[in-house]
Hints:
Blueprint: H1 4-9, E1 16-21, E2 27-33, H2 36-42, H3 52-60, E3 63-68, H4 72-86, E4 93-94, E5 102-105, E6 114-117, E7 126-128, H5 134-148, H6 168-171, H7 185-199, H8 204-219, H9 223-242, E8 244-245, E9 253-261, E10 264-273, E11 276-286, H10 293-307, E12 314-317, H11 324-335, E13 340-342, H12 347-377, H13 379-388, E14 396-405, E15 408-418, E16 421-422, E17 428-431, H14 440-464, E18 480-483, H15 487-499, E19 506-511, E20 517-522, E21 525-528, H16 534-567, H17 575-585, H18 588-593, H19 596-599, H20 607-618
Parallel strand pairs: 9-12, 12-13, 14-18, 18-19
Antiparallel strand pairs: 1-2, 1-3, 4-11, 5-6, 5-7, 8-11, 9-10, 10-11, 14-15, 15-16, 15-17, 19-20, 20-21
Helix pairs in contact: 4-11, 5-9, 8-9, 12-13, 13-16, 14-15
Amino acid sequence: MFDFDEELKKLPNSPGVYLMHDDSDTIIYVGKAINLHNRVRSYFRKIVGRGPQIDRMVEQIARFEYIVTDSELEALVLENNLIKEYSPKYNTMLKDDKTYPYIKVTVGEEYPRIFISREMKKDKSRYFGPYTSAAAVKDTIDLMNKLYQLKTCNRKLPRDIGLERPCLNYHIKQCAAPCQGYISKEEYRARIDQALDFLNGNYKPMLRELEQKMTEASEKMEFEEAAGYRDLYNSVKSVAQKQKITDSNGEDKDIIALALEEHDAVVQVFFVRDGKLIGRDHFYMTHVEDCDSAQILLDFVKQFYAGTPYIPKELMLQEEIADTEILEKWLSARKGGRVYIRVPKKGAKEKLVELAAQNAKLILSQDKERIRREEGRTIGAMKEIAALLHLEDVSRMEAFDISNISGFANVGSMVVFEKGKAKRSDYRKFRIQSVSGPDDYACMKEVLTRRFVHGMEEKEELDRRQMEHTFGSFTKFPDLLLMDGGKGQVNIALQVLSELHLDIPVCGMVKDDNHRTRGLYYQNVEIPIDTRSEGFKLVTRIQDEAHRFAIEYHRSLRSKAQVKSALDEIPGVGPARRKALMRHFGSINEIKEASVEKLCEVPEIPEHIGKQIYAYFRAGGEIDKQE
Length: 627
C-alpha cells in the first residue's frame, strides 16, 4: 500500500519530473518542477480554484514517482520525452504528429543533387524549408531538374564516370549526364549555384533566361522547344507569385496563435523563412479542459519543437507564457544558435499574430460545423431510427446478409455500426456449415445462432475467470438487429433470440420491386420512412454495406475454388507452384492462354511441369497422369 504521507516527506528540494499513476498503474500525468518537494505536495493540499480537471486527476492518483535532474532545463527535456512516450490522460497533448518536407541540396558532394527530405541532419548539405505541402516541394524539385538538368541517381562521381550507359533522364533532356563526362564539374557546379539562387527566392535571372531561350527557339521555328521553355517560364512565375514578403529583414520565424472554445483548441502556425511566408498549418490540442490559452501555448511550444527538426530564430506568440527563459535556453541548445520568444505589441508583427489567431478561429468554427453535420449523419440518424421504432436508446446496430449462387458456397456477413459509423474491426464473415442448398432462412438461422452463442460463451468464460468484460465484436450485443428483408428474415431472428433467451429488438429493412429500401418492418408492422431523412440514408448505407461485405466474401471463395479446381488437378502443381503461377500471370485465363515457353518463365515451373500445364488446358482439363 502506497503511504502518501511518508512518500511526500521524502520528496527532495530539487528540480525534476514527477509521474502520477492510477490504481491500474497507468501514468495519468507527467509534470516538471523546479522544486519537487513543493510542487508535488501542492497537489494533495486542499486548494480552492485550481479547476475540476486537476481535482479529478488527484482523485485518481494511487501513487507517484519522481526523477531528480541537475537542472530545470534537463527536467523540461525529460518531461517532453515522457509525455511523448506515455501520452498521459491529463496532459494537454499535441494531437497532430506531422513531419514536414525539406528541399535538400547535397552541396558537400562533388556533383550535388536536389531531393526531398523529411529530416534535417547536421551534414554538409543545405536545407530549404520546412514546407507545408509535399506536392509543392515535388513540383519545385521537378522544375529544378528540368531547368538545370541535374543528376538524381546515387552514382558516385567522378569515380563511376563512364562505367554505365546514361539513363532515361539524359535522353529526355532532364539530366546533363555528368556520369558520362558530358558536362564539366565547373559547369555543373555553376548550375547548382543557379538552383541555390532560385531556392533563395531570386527568380528574375531565371525568368529572363527562359524568356530569351523561348524567343530564340521561336525565331528558329523550333516551336516544340519554345513551348517547353514557355511552360517552364510559367512554372517559375507561378512559384515566384506564391511567395509573400512578410519581413524585409529576411529572417526565419514562426508566428503562433490559437483559438480556444469550450473543450476544443486549435493552434495556427505561420512559417516565415528568409522573410517569406512559405506556408501555414494548424494543430489540434486535446485535454484542454480547465486550461487557459497561455498554458495551451506553452504545452504546444514544448511538444511541437521537441519533434520538429528545424527551429527558427524567433517565435512570435499571441501572449506571454510561463518558463520563457528556460524555453529559450532549451530551444537555443536544440538549434545551436540563439532563439528568441517574443510577444509583439504593435506594428506589422502584431498584425501577423492577429492574422494567425483569426485563421485559428476560422478553422475551429469550420471544424465545429463539420462535426455538427457529421453528427447529423451519424448520431442524429441513430436517434431518428430509435424515435421511429419507439426505442429509448440505440447506439450499436448489427446487420446480417446471406450470399450464394444456386446454393454454392453459402456465406453470411455481419456488419456493425456504432453511433452511426461503420465499425469495421467488428465485422465478421460466416461460411455456412449446415446448409448445402439455396435456403436463405436456414443460412440466416445458422449465422445468428453462431453469432450469439459465441458471444454468450465468451461472456461466461470472462465471468468464470472473474475478468472484466473486454467488449469486442461478439461479447457486446447490439441495441438493434437489422435484417436484410421483411417478415420472413425478422421471424427467423426472433426465433433464434427466443431460443437463446435474449431480448434484442429486431427490425427488417424492406426493399421495393426495384431493390431500393422503402421502409422498416418492426413488430409485425411496416413503418414508412422519409427518404430524405438522415435516418433513411443511414439504413440504406447499412443495408448496402451488409450486402457488399457478403458479396465480396462469396466472390473470394469462388475465386479460390476456381483456382484450386483448375490447377490442383495437374500433377506436380502444388500450393507453392500455384501461387507462383498466379503471381506471375495474374489470372487463370492468362495461364490457360500461355505457351510452354511462357509458363517456363516462372522460376518455379520446370519444363516438364510446363508441358503438363499446357497439355491439361488443351485437353479440356484432362491429362494422362503417367506422362
